[in-house]
Amino acid sequence: MTTMKEEEKITQPFSPDVLPPNKVICIRLCGHNLKIAITFDSSQGVSGIIWNAGVVLCNYFEKEAIRFSGKKVIELGSGTGLVGILAALLGGEVTLTDQAYALPQIEVNVAANIPPSDVRRSTISALSWGQDQNSFPADYDIILGSELVFHPSSYIPLLQTLLHLSHKETVIYLCSAMNPYTMSSSFYHDTLPPYFNCQLVYRDESKNCNVYKVTKI
Ligand SMILES: C[S@@+](CC[C@H](N)C(=O)[O-])C[C@H]1O[C@@H](n2cnc3c(N)ncnc32)[C@H](O)[C@@H]1O
């Protein structure tokens, strides 16, 4: 078991190649001290760690004082659950989703960070894009996603999922590292625009991450 001081030392940077496996990351976001378990091995794939885009999206919430109280929120591809947990701590009624294999880690992190008095406002469910979205309602106020756009084969299933879950008033916040190898910019410039307004609202230059505010046309 590491001490809090040791854990704090490994909170920067979040680059996946420098993170040791199976650690607890301590991070303060929007006035909340979060302890997020990460698993950097093949059992969790890309969902096991905190990606820069998740941290940048949380920083954007803080900078813009985004309000979650009383809002019905769904997070796609939650990974460790960092973003959805913060949205729940900020008052949202949040459904954290990912592929089934990733859910146990989200459950651990929800239990560790959301007090029992608030835990009824968070739900954890399996949602594979392009397959499961029709089992979910279509009336979310806010949809969240960080570092979801990293393989072109998932762009259409992700688009189908966003189309089902949203209505004209839904606000979707997506954050991505703008990595030329993943061609993430084409999702925002080509895939979304026929169906959604897609506005770049924040950029973290040091992490090369963009936050987009997306609404249905
Ligand atoms: C790069 S990770 C980002 C995790 C987290 N959002 C973050 O920022 O730290 C991508 C996440 O999307 C999930 N994912 C990938 N393809 C998916 C799919 N087809 N359906 C649902 N989730 C998927 C992965 O399991 C993983 O948790």
UniProtKB/TrEMBL annotation:
Organism: Callorhinchus milii
SUPFAM superfamilies according to UniProt: S-adenosyl-L-methionine-dependent methyltransferases (SSF53335)
Name assigned to this protein: Uncharacterized protein
GO cellular component terms given for this protein: cytosol; protein-containing complex
InterPro entries according to UniProt: Methyltransf_16, SAM-dependent_MTases_sf
Alphabetic keyword roster: Methyltransferase, S-adenosyl-L-methionine, Transferase
Any GO MF annotation of the entry: methyltransferase activity
Top-level taxonomy: Eukaryota, Metazoa, Chordata, Craniata, Vertebrata
One example of a Gene Ontology biological process annotation: methylation
